[in-house]
Amino acid sequence: MNKKCFCCFNNMNKNDSDDELLQDWMDFRFEKLESNLTDEDRKHALKYDTFCEKLLDVIPDKDSDYVSDILDDFREEILNYCIYWNEKYYKCGFSDCIKLQEMK
Fold this sequence. Notes:
The chain is mostly helical. The protein has helices spanning 18-35, 39-43, 48-58, 61-103.
């Protein structure tokens, strides 16, 4: 991660490095969250592989490769969807916090 000085917050929304600073922050948060999962977090994890296995168990063998490929594509779409909206949500919230700080 590119560690930037968080004193740069004063310059947020005033230059083109906003996206880079926000991305650094998102990377930092992801690393921190990924390493600190609680039992509650694990309880709410998406059990996608389990669902796929159950589905593929009832699919005839001749169609299983096709369905498996579709499920892989679907997994990729779900992940991209979640990443996009989570980043958008957190970037907006982060930007709002910076704006509030600037108003003080």
